[in-house]
Description:
Elements: H1 4-30, H2 42-50, H3 59-64, H4 75-125, H5 128-170, H6 172-208, H7 218-264, H8 277-312, H9 320-323, H10 325-347, H11 356-382, E1 386-390, E2 393-397, H12 398-423, H13 428-436, H14 441-454, H15 457-487, H16 490-512, H17 517-563, H18 575-616, H19 629-643, H20 645-662, H21 664-700, H22 703-710, H23 725-761, H24 772-778
Antiparallel strand pairs: 1-2
Amino acid sequence: MLTAADVAGICLGASGLGFVFSLLYAYDTSMTILDPKQLSGKEDQYLLQSVGDQPVVDMSQVNSHFDPRTGDPNLKQEYATRQKIWDIYLAIWEGAHAFLYAEYRFIAMFVVGFSIIILVVLGVTDSWINAALTMVSFIVGCVTSVVAGFLGMKIGVYANARTTVAVNTGGLNAGFQTSFKAAVVMGFVLCSMGILNLFILIACLRVYYTNACKTGFDDDTRNLFECVAGYGLGGSCIGLFGRVGGGIYTKAADVGADLVGKLEANIPEDSPKNPAVIADNVGDNVGDIAGMGADLFGSFAEATCAGMVIASQGTIANEWGAIALPILISAGGIFVCFVTSFVATHCFPIETERDIEPALKRQILVSTVLMTPVLYLLCWAALPYEIASIGGKDHVKYWQVFICAASGLWCGLIIGYITEYYTSHSWGPVREVAVSCKTGAATNIIYGMALGYKSVVIPAIALAVAAYIAHSMAGYYGVAMAALGILSTLSIGLTIDAYGPICDNAGGIAEMAELGEEVRDQTDALDAAGNTTAAIGKGFAIGSAAFVSLALFSGFITIIKVRNPKFAGVDILNPWPFSGLLFGAMLPYWFSAMTMKSVGAAALAMVNEVREQFRNNPGILQGEVKPDYQRCIRISTEASLTEMVPPGILVMGTPLIVGFLFGVECLAGVLCGALVSGVQMAISSSNTGGAWDNAKKFVEADGLVQYADELGQQDDGLNHGKGSDTHKAAVVGDTVGDPLKDTSGPSLNILIKLMAIISLVFAKAFPLDDGGLLGRWLS
């Protein structure tokens, strides 16, 4: 059995390794010179002196001050190019920071208000000291999630333009190394911070609960970890606003830019002539990086808290080393992911465009293989050979707990690879969608929806099998371990997810800076692989959310059983649970309708703004007048902050209203219904949107001709390229899919997790009467 010193050493060692590794790669990323003032060499210094140390705006200024007798003739072009990239980078940087500052001001008010609710409700119904400590845990979770998302956004913005420069000056492998290492920073910082802050929080709370984890003080142990559950609640709350707010922001800009720019004005996707293009690039960072980081941090925090809450109710409650197994699994994952990252950066360099996607997918496989024996070692070291009772199961062996965690780990791998199969244009399903574009947008929509529905089958089966194995082996605790298994390689999961938006931005910057066709082709190749890995990351997040929600539900039921030993469970044939089941299954549809409509309303405002700028300033399309990017940024910011409130109220208000008004059995039905319905809908939405996106890129790359050759068919290659009817049909599908894959789909996993963690935290406050307060009144 591990001692407290052992647990501290593993947790602090893993966090320290993650932070140091992140700093080294952040420094490595900074070595790519972006600011033209930092260009080195005699020629550069002469050029700067010639223009009075002022930024060079255009080529004429460079030419008029450039002396060919003392300077490199290639320098003037490089300097002008770097200046364009620098200006675009600053615009994205300022827009991303402006949005997050505005969003975090709103979040700060929410944190204060909800903290008061936690304190008052739990204080009145349970204990004021427990309520206060839960509130503190909630605030710590909120702050950690905010910082994680903010740092992720900063490294994403910091790296996107540097990836463009790396491709322009060093080629494909240089661009891949820059983007991947920056994504590594995001993955390792978030996981390290999550482990460190949770470990410190538990240590601080044990100052009050001095007898926790000691024989004979089971109540102190249970109270301690029920208070710690507030940490997961805080992380998930911020994840909700990050995913929904950031998703609305990015898709309002993206859809508005596509509808007017590509379909009406017939300009490239990331043309600097499009007023919404900067807002679109800002959205990739605040939605796909900051929002995604906050979301997956919430999954980590919730799964860890659920595992410890359930463990504290079992016979290992007096062993801190055994209860700490959830944190130890996450810490072990950092060591494994550290080793895995070198496979992509040092073992298999990128030589051709075809090497990119396999290099990223290899990360998932290698980390899963390496993590499996680590899980066994941790279970063997932390747990006794046999646990008398835990999670509703008796006589649970340590190796059975290992099988539970391993089932979740390998289930995540299966979901990742199935997601890749249905969203990458390297495989048949997406290519079929691309071919359907030949006959118009309608057939493209039909094929894409069918693909999304079909893509649910294998992930659902994998989740069902893993859940059955976990529950049969170790009951509720086994389910929590399965959730932690799928999240054990979170550092790599975050890395390949953050890689996508970084490369997406890099491609947009390359086009806005008017770099050569070869550079744009290489950034497109990086971006196409990033689209697939981002889809894999979303599948990974949804799969983990399913297990996390089930684990939290298990923790909720465990607390109810402790409060009422006669509580035998939930029978869905009873009226209250069955009614809750139907209502819960409806919630993902209601939530998706709200988020989709929000994107539509914001996109409509963006479309009108872009049209108005084109109409009032005809010189924009001729490149004579610079668009007003800030007005589009302001539209996306205001729309996202306004529109994210109703979905947030729906998700956070539902478990509280149902729990108090209709009782815990009805709430259990709501949680089960939302979980089952939400997982299917989330997978379908994300994969449909991802498939449409990559089908469009397949059409743009003239892949239809090659695909016809592979099938032994004839294709004349006409009406395929950018601007063709086939391409326009593909763009329509991509535009429809954008809010599915980046707003409603990823946000659904927040819905099922957040409702479950709220139910767990407030479990002691809900009335146990059949039908809750309403049932009490009716009787």
